[in-house]
Amino acid sequence: MSRQTIQTDKAPAAVGTYSQAVKVGNTVYISGQLGFDPETMELRDGFEAQAKQVFANLKAVCEAAGGSLSDVVKFNVSLTDLSDFAVLNEVFVENLSEPYPARAAVQVAALPKGGVVEIEAILYIE
């Protein structure tokens, strides 16, 4: 199978040795997205604003790969505070519809650049 690197200016540029996403066959692996505004590379202020920006970034990468958020089959979420879980669920409901994809959520000690939420995704595009 061919391997294709996905990149879009509508999501934050990679700040390390990784790609925004990699597509192999019909599967797209999106790297963890933080709440950075892609134009300023500044983190949004607060959990909800960062979570909404994360989804905007994920949406942009999904579209660059030829898919959409509805093609996501699995999300992996890292939060610095699990007490933000209820707000996270609200942001998921705002951006997705049933049937919902699989999801894991864990609390971590810290995230890069002081972020409070990071989400990675796996898409399957037919």
TrEMBL record:
CDD domains: YjgF_YER057c_UK114_family. InterPro entries: RidA, RidA_CS, RutC-like_sf, YjgF/YER057c/UK114. NCBIfam families: Rid family detoxifying hydrolase (TIGR00004). Belongs to the RutC family. This is RidA family protein.
